[in-house]
Amino acid sequence: MSRLLEIQNLSVEYRRGRQVIPAVRHVNLTVEAGETLGLVGESGCGKSTLALSILKLLPETEAKITGGRIVFEGRNLLQSPVETLRKIRGERIGMIFQDPFSSLNPVFTIGNQMTETLVWHNLSHPSRKARELLAQVQLTDAERILSSYPHQISGGQRQRVMIALAICAKPKLLIADEPTTALDVTIQKEIMDLLIQLQKELNMSVILVTHNLALVSQNTKRCAVMNAGEIVEEGMTGDVIQHPHHPYTQTLLRCVPSLAR
Amino acid sequence: MLIIYWRRLLKNRLALAGTFFITLLIMIAVLAPWLSPRDPLQQDLLSRLQSPSRVHFFGTDDLGRDVFSRVLYGTRVSLTVGILAVLISVLVGTSIGLLSGYLGGWWDGVLMRSVDVLLCFPVIFLILMAVAFLEPSINNVMIIIGLTSWMGLSRLVRGEVLSLKERDFIQAAKALGVPSRRILIVHLLPNAISPIVVSATLGVGGAILTEAALSFLGLGVQPPMPSWGNILTVGKDYMHIAWWLSIFPGLAILVTVLAFNLLGEGLRDVLDPRLET
User: The whole model's pTM is what?
Assistant: First the structure.
C-alpha cells in the first residue's frame, strides 16, 4: 500500500488576545491508500482541529499552524496556493461534519445545493448525476429529497446527502468528523455501513474522527488515540483495544459502558 | 418559502395597507399622463391661486397650474428617486458589509472605521456639499442620496455575515471546494436577505423625505418640473392665502412615507425566522 497522506510534526495553536492554547502538538500520522483510520479521543483533545487543519479550514484569525508538514499525494498542503487547495477540497479530499442539519444551507433545496456543488466540480448533467449520487448513498425517494429543504428531511437523510456531496468528485480521502454523533444508534450503524461500502466501491481512504471506541473497533483496522493535542498511541485497532499500552488509552477503555455489567 | 411569507403578509393588515397604497402609487406614477386632467406645466395666469373646486381638485398655484396634476406627476419623481437611491445604497451597503464581515481582520477594521467616520457627518450637510459641487438634477439627487445612506445597512449586513460565517454550512461549502466569491454570493447573501429587504423598504421612505427636503431647499428637482418638495416651496410663500398648495403635496409625502414604513415593519415581522407556521 502506498502513502496517501502524511502528517509530519504538525502543531496548531489557538490564539485569543495574548492567550495561546496549543491544540495539536507535534503530531505524526500517516494514512495509507484505501485504509480506514480511526482517530479517537475525548472532546477537546484536538482531533477535530487536526482534521480541519488537513484542509486548512481552521479559522484564520484565531488558529495558527505553527509547524510541520501535511503531505498529500506528494504535495505539502500547508504551502499550496489557495487555488490549488480549493481544487483539492472536495475533489481529492472530501469532508463530512458532525451535524448534518447545520451543514446544509437552510435557504436552498437539496437539489439546488447538489447541482451547485456538481457544477463547481465541472460534472456534466448535474441533475442526473445528483440522482445517481442519491442512489449511491441509498436514498430511494430522490425526487422528494431533491425538492425538499434541509429541515424537511430526517437527520439520517441529511447525513446521506452530505456524504453524497462529499463523494461527488470521487475523492481519494474522506475525512469524517464525528459523522454519526448527532444521529441515533440504528441510523449510526446504517451510516457507518454506508461509509465502509462506499470506501470499498471508490477505493478511498477514510479518517474516522470520533470519541466512540465501539465505532472505531467495528469499522477500522488501524487507529490512533489522541489526548491533549498529542497522539499517545497508534496501532492496529484490535491490538490497541485488547492490549492498550498508554495509561490514557487504558482509562479511555475503562470508561466505555458495558451492557454486561 | 415564498408562499409562507405571502400568507403571513396577507394576515398583517398594516403591511397589507402599505402594499396596497404602494401599488396604487406605482400605478399613479406610470399612468400620470392619462390620469392628470391637465398638463402640469401649463400656466393659466387668469386662474391663479384658485381654491380646490370641481375643475381643479387640489386648486391652482401662483402661476395657475393645476396642483392635482402636479402632485400626480410628482409621484413619478418621488418614487423614482426613492427607489433608485435605495437601490444604490443597498448595492454599496451590502457589498461593503459582506466584504467587511467575510474578510474580517484588518479589512473589517478599515471598512467599519470608515463607516463610523461617514456616520459622524450630518447627512444633510454631506448632501449640501455634494450638490454645491454638482449641478442639482434628479439624477444627481438620486446618486447623492444613495451614496450617503448605505452606512447603516453595511453594518447590519456585516453583523449578519459575522454570525452566518461561523455556521457549519459555510465550513461545509469550503470543504467542498466552493470558492470564496461564490460562498459570499450564493451562501451568505441569500441568508442575509431578510434584514436587507426590511431595511431597504424603510429606506425608501427616508429617501423620499430627503428628496422632498432637497427640492424644498431648491437643491433637488428643479422647477418647472414638479416634485412634491418644490410644490411645497411655492406653497410656503402663500401659506396664509392658499393652504392647498402646501397641504396636498405634504399629505402625499406623508402617506407615501407611511406606506413604505408600514410595509417595512410588516416585512420585518413576516420575515422573522422565529415565527413558525
Answer: 0.75
